[in-house]
């Protein structure tokens, strides 16, 4: 049973990674194209359109996590009527959220001249219409996200991931074609909006074909289920807004205080988002798995899964983050050109470290949410958000974009500290892990293995290219050996070996 559950999580993680691969491909190909085809101010304005238009998604208010959790719980007990009630109630609530999101988008459009005083009148007009299109489409698509979360709750990730990946690819192609035809930012925004709405319609069609036994009807929207979902989302909504202050306002703050650096900051943030998206895609499937373990009261399994996923996450952060620290400038130069590289490399280094710190607690946070303990976890999110926002604004007024990056780092340190000192104290009954055990077995083992690589990074002062290929390669190989032999436990290595063996057997069977 445990091996089957692990295989399910692995398959869902693979589906997430496939969508991530599409997203990363689009995210990697678009910026070098846009930075070379658009003026710096036009590119900065486009970044602001995407950033502010995405704010409409905040009005999801944790409902997707609630759907995934409760659908997973009722699916585990085969209570189909309760599952239908969850989805129907969530769709209704997201419909209300969509109306609120549209109002918020209208307010943002109205305030653009006050938020970004360095924009020219022409760009003000373009940004306003772009936000209206992108934000409006995001708001209107909110109810369809309930159906995507239903697939995740029954642990069938392939379908929503395929729809999401396909829409990302089409969006990238549409933007490229629009820029080739010298279209305005408004036309680019219209492309994003149209594809987002089409993806929502495809999601509805997929639900009707594959999950039609889960009914969506006003008749089964109940007060009891509404109260249950809202009680769960009360803390999640606070968490969602905290995430907005942590990572959703950074580019906007830069645009307000230091508009000329907006493009540079966006380029650095795009690369560091690769670390965040990779971790999120791999460890997102922990949520329904955690909910399932909570439903059957398997606390030993919960503790084991938390520690193992934390070790895997630490290794992943090392593998994805350190290359950006070691070779940030050459990567940026090849990717977006020497001008952007020169202005973005310091921002890249600070943001990479900040997100490596923040993301080391990702698996634990997912397990907390999966066990319905987000009322304890959001304290850390609020603390990180407040510190991040205050420090970013205070430093941005003096140091510009660099101050915002430092604010992200300081906030991340505070968030990790609060999780360990506060969340673990109150979540111990459901996730029976002592702080020392978490620090030593979850984080210290894999992170200690990167000491040689970090030492080399500081020795070469962030520029290993001056020492040729061989020294960095030898240090990287040494780090990989240490991670495999010391950073991971024997059972971790067994899981990896089994996953590789199952993957090979599946390939042979398909052939």
Short description:
This protein is mainly α.
Description of the molecule:
With 511 residues, this protein is mostly helical. The chain has two domains: 1-234, no CATH class; 249-511, no CATH class. The chain has helices at residues 2-37, 40-53, 63-76, 80-115, 121-140, 142-153, 158-180, 185-210, 223-248, 250-257, 262-283, 286-295, 299-326, 328-336, 338-359, 362-370, 374-399, 401-426, 435-448, 451-459, 470-487, 490-510. Helix 2 runs parallel beside helix 11 and helix 7 packs antiparallel against helix 8 (185-210). It is globular, with a radius of gyration of 23 Å.
Q: Please, how many domains?
A: 2
Helix content: over 70%
Distance between the termini: 27 Å
Q: How many H/I helices?
A: 22
Assembly state: single chain
| Total number of strands | 0
Biggest sheet descriptor = none
Element-by-element helix/strand order: HHHHHHHHHHHHHHHHHHHHHH
Low-confidence parts: 1-7, 504-511
Overall body shape: globular
Measured by DSSP, the beta-strand proportion falls in: under 5%
SSE class: mainly alpha
List keywords for this structure.
0% strand, 22 helices, 2 domains, mainly alpha, disordered C terminus, 511 residues
Question: How is this fold's topology laid out?
Answer:
Layout: H1 2-37, H2 40-53, H3 63-76, H4 80-115, H5 121-140, H6 142-153, H7 158-180, H8 185-210, H9 223-248, H10 250-257, H11 262-283, H12 286-295, H13 299-326, H14 328-336, H15 338-359, H16 362-370, H17 374-399, H18 401-426, H19 435-448, H20 451-459, H21 470-487, H22 490-510
